[in-house]
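User: Could you check the structure of this?
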Amino acid sequence: MKNPNEPLPSLNALRAFEAASRHLSFRRAAEELGVTEGAVGQHIRGLETALGLKLFERQPRRLALTENGQSYSASVRRAFDLLVEATQALRPQALKLAVSVTPTFAAKWLIPRLPDFTAAHPEIDLRIVATERISHFQTDGVDLAVRYGSPPFGAGLNAELLFDDILIAVAAPRAMAGARKSNGIVARHALLHDAHNLWPQFLAQLHQPLPSAAEKNIRFNQTSLAIDAALEGQGIALAHWAFVARDVAAGRLVRVFDDELHTGAGFYLVFPRKLQHPGPVSQLRDWLHHQASLSTQIAAA
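Assistant: Sure, the predicted structure tokens are below.
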């Protein structure tokens, strides 16, 4: 029977041995542990002395485990794994929530506001899934989605309006320098289109024709790219007011027309009726609604 009072090798020596047994190199073990190669060698020699047996065969340009070393390394590795598991079990794990959004919504609205949420809820680990593809809640492990369109979005899903789809035309101030809001402004500037292609509808509301010249139309597959092009002075973008509200407030973009296009669609928070984490999802929903109301105030200012 083992004597429980028999002293064990030092933890540092065991760590050095475990690392060296994986790498079969004192040098690489030292790099991993942040110590010198000599310190690793000293730990190994002390361990071999304490155990009364060799753990490594020192061969030219290589290191090999002895039979005893192989057996001991497996046991030591299991012991370290148990220590890691026991330590992690004591630590509170961050609650993970996955949110599915479009790339434009993520880049132009959500990401600039995320520090506010993470500061208020450090216990929630958010995973942002930015994709044009409609995520499925069960198969993709999504807890909450922001979807564009009109409800219903599917059986068993709740939908809450975040904000209506209201589009405005914006451009960089330098691109509009000296320009007046007249029929000629559209003909003189490139129109920056996105995948929704709502310029014809917007111009029809203004009773203006759509430019036919190819050089007057630049097309992007995402609204965020059209907005970026407008910021660079490359033309006029048609974008949701919430995506450009900060840029307009800061003077990086200006409204080209006073008119707005109400598409009848909107951005909705969509989530299953049966939630895996109802409390945290509710906190996230409340925060998103609050941020949407703040966006409205910025746009109205």
